Request: fold
Amino acid sequence: MTEKATFGAGCFWGVESAFRKMKGVVSTQVGYAGGSFKNPTYEDVCTDGTGHAEVIQVEYDPAQVSYEELLELFWRIHDPTTPNRQGPDIGTQYRSAVFYHSQEQKAAAEVSKEKLQKSGRYKKPVVTEITPASEFYRAEEYHQQYFEKRGMISH
Reply:
């Protein structure tokens, strides 16, 4: 039996590529979540007016990988201290976010965030939002597995 996890960590291309390499991840898809606009397109989300974040939805096998391990990768692959920004990408769609699918995921995300904040790894506060999973809108096909389709390697 698989479970879902949804994360926003900046541009979804590299985030998806990183999660696809993780043992226990059954499938991934990129899309938009956390906004109020129905059926947004990439162009809609890029206006910074829909409220959506670029997200990855991960289907994983909890017998092979724990939600906590997914969170560890999430924290490692982006800067959770920059509100509405990752590197050169600026806007609310690039915010750091955990969209939880259960109370267990919410609790794990909160504990993990607090642990990261106390670790001293970052001098600035961790601003990652932890909110209930909202409707997920799958991104256009050309965004799915973007790096793999183009023979690019993510960092």
Observations:
- The chain is about 30% helix and 25% strand.
- The CA atoms of residues 112 and 137 lie 26 Å apart.
- The mean pLDDT is 94.
